[in-house]
Amino acid sequence: MQLEIREITGFPGYGTSSDGRVWTRKNARWGLRDEWRPMAPRPTTHGYMMIGLCKGNKSHPRLIHRLIYECWVGSIPDGLEINHINAIRGDNNVSNLELVTRNGNMAHAGNLGRLAIAERNTATRLSRSLIKVIFNLRRAGLSQAKIASIVGCSRSNIGLILQGKTWKHMGKP
Fold it and tell me: Backbone phi, then psi, for 163, in 5-degree steps?
């Protein structure tokens, strides 16, 4: 079976295959070759795979999942993102990519337990039990400033919790 490679728009000599790989026919010395060669991607700090495409002696870094989607499915409208269905950021097979809103992407990550919320967030000083205490203290009529001094965080943080802007999964008091 012959592997199909589709050329990347705006970058002659570069292409993608539906299995999520990026290919090149470029050669610095002789121009374009006849055969396609796979390129070696590198991971970003967030785990997505990236590749540098050269045009006019300048490198243009591109996220591979976006290149694959654009070559095999179509353009990505403003305000939409590409979601990795299996949550593996290095798996850029076209069948693993879907177009979603930012909220849809975050909901998908949340459903798979990939978001650092509540105790999974290593930067938090609060816990679920402490949030319940905050709600109970507010029900008892204490001010946000008094609750903040009791639990050891800022008044503004207490306000955000009570308004449901942080710790949303805990609900409102």
Answer: -80, -10
pLDDT tens digits for range 111-167? 776 665 555 555 567 777 888 889 999 999 999 999 888 888 889 989 998 998 887
pTM > 0.85: no
Q: Which residues pair with 144 in a beta bridge?
A: none
- One-letter amino acid for residue 85 of the chain: I
Domain extent listing, the chain: 5-111, 119-170
Instruction: Confirm or reject CATH 3.90.75.20 for domain 5-111, answering yes or no.
Output: yes
Predicted confidence (pLDDT) per residue in 77-108, tens digit: 999 999 999 988 899 999 999 999 988 888 87
For helices 144-151 and 155-162, the axis angle rounded to 10 degrees is: 110
Residue 61's contacts (CB-CB under 8 Å, 6 or more residues apart) are: 50, 51, 52, 53
